[in-house]
Amino acid sequence: MKIRKTTILDKQEDLYIYENKKDDYFVIAVPVLEWSTYFTYDENKEELLERISKSLQGKVGGEAAAIELAIKIYGWTREM
């Protein structure tokens, strides 16, 4: 499991990334937002970013912040 620090609602918060290499999926959790998601290695980038950003919009204070966090999550999962 990887832990990344990121700014959420103007505070540094932890974001947890679990990778299951055997079954080819990730689980992402942001405890401060009471938010998590699951996705596989082969999900389409654009669809994944849209799904993550839509689910985050009401929790992080708007569309721009949700898109920014979704892009960060995508980048962190691709570097693993």
Molecular structure report:
By secondary structure, this protein is an alpha+beta fold. The protein has a single domain (2-79), classed as 2-Layer Sandwich (Double Stranded RNA Binding Domain), CATH 3.30.160. It is built from two helices and four strands. It has helices at residues 45-60, 63-79; strands at residues 2-8, 11-20, 25-30, 35-40. Strand 1 and strand 2 (11-20) form a beta hairpin. The N and C termini lie close together (10 Å).
Note the run of SSEs as H and E: EEEEHH
| Rg for CA atoms | 12 Å
Largest pleated sheet: 4 strands, antiparallel
Q: Overall pLDDT, averaged? A: 95
Q: Roughly how many Å apart are the termini? A: 10 Å
Strand order of the largest sheet: 1-2-3-4
Task: Give the C-level CATH assignment.
Answer: Alpha Beta
Number of helical regions: 2
Structural class estimated from helices and strands: alpha+beta
Shape: globular
> If classified by CATH, what would the architecture be?
2-Layer Sandwich
Within the CATH hierarchy, at the fold level, what is the topology?
Double Stranded RNA Binding Domain
β-strand number? 4
Estimated helix fraction: 40-55%
Number of domains: 1
User: How much of the sequence is in beta strands?
Assistant: 35-45%
Low-confidence stretches: none
